[in-house]
């Protein structure tokens, strides 16, 4: 299997606070992890790509100081939304590719719904 | 850079009827192609993928897709849908030259199956 989990599944926070979202590959080692953002009834927009032990690569228009990504191990990546504001409310989804798998298929987590009040 | 176009934003279909979801892409290099399904408030589940070889790809839940290089298309089909197939379907591509396998998604097609 290739199971990816996210925690929490749903979080509500006050404006100005920071929120950390975890993404874990449960039964495989992840070479690369991706973070996406999805607005209601829209497609997924790639925010950043991270490899274990190195800095994340952010897509154009994504503020790296606001969306902090830490890929500390081959099974864990975290996304911290700093000083969150209502416009950061969204569905955040992570994915991972398996180490040693040639095809670069991404395995997705169940998503985290962030609501900023 | 590649792009993906899903031609239908919503497809209503009756239970046990066939369905086809259209996907066209553009890229200056060769690509891998994927179809994912998303149920409400959930992440994405891989339905099938085309990497190379046979252009007809069979996936889970009775879905299949055909890669047509000349028409740069990768349409998804199912001969008989169930109510449980109601979901959002995303077509995605990654360029074979991209070492990280970054995906470009289409806008999605909402399939609504009614009795």
Keywords:
heterodimer, A: 117 residues, mainly beta, seven-stranded mixed β-sheet, four-stranded antiparallel β-sheet, 55% strand, globular, B: 115 residues, six-stranded mixed β-sheet
Helix-strand topology string of chain A? EEEEEEEEEEE
What value does the average pLDDT of chain B take?
Answer: 92
Note the total helix count of chain B: 0
Kindly name the structural category of chain B: mainly beta
Order of helices and strands of chain B: EEEEEEEEEEEE
Write the layout of secondary structure elements.
The complex is a heterodimer of chains A (117) and B (115).
Chain A: E1 4-7, E2 10-13, E3 19-25, E4 30-38, E5 44-51, E6 57-58, E7 67-73, E8 76-81, E9 90-98, E10 106-108, E11 112-116
Parallel strand pairs in A: 2-11
Antiparallel strand pairs in A: 1-3, 3-8, 4-5, 4-9, 5-6, 7-8, 9-10, 9-11
Chain B: E1 3-6, E2 10-14, E3 19-21, E4 23-26, E5 31-38, E6 44-50, E7 56-58, E8 64-68, E9 73-78, E10 87-95, E11 104-105, E12 109-114
Parallel strand pairs in B: 2-12
Antiparallel strand pairs in B: 1-4, 3-9, 5-6, 5-10, 7-8, 8-9, 10-11, 10-12
What does this structure look like?
The complex is a heterodimer of chains A (117) and B (115). Chain A has strands at residues 4-7, 10-13, 19-25, 30-38, 44-51, 57-58, 67-73, 76-81, 90-98, 106-108, 112-116. With 117 residues, chain A is mainly β. In chain A, strands 2, 4, 5, 6, 9, 10 and 11 form a seven-stranded mixed beta sheet that branches. In chain B, strand 7 and strand 8 (64-68) form a beta hairpin. Chain B is globular, with a radius of gyration of 14 Å. The termini of chain B are far apart. The mean pLDDT of chain B is 92. The chains are: A mainly beta (117), B mainly beta (115). Chain A binds chain B through residues 4, 6, 32, 34, 41-44, 46, 49, 51, 91, 93, 95, 97, 103-111, 113, and chain B through 32, 34, 36, 41-46, 49, 51, 90, 94, 98, 100-103, 105-108, 110.
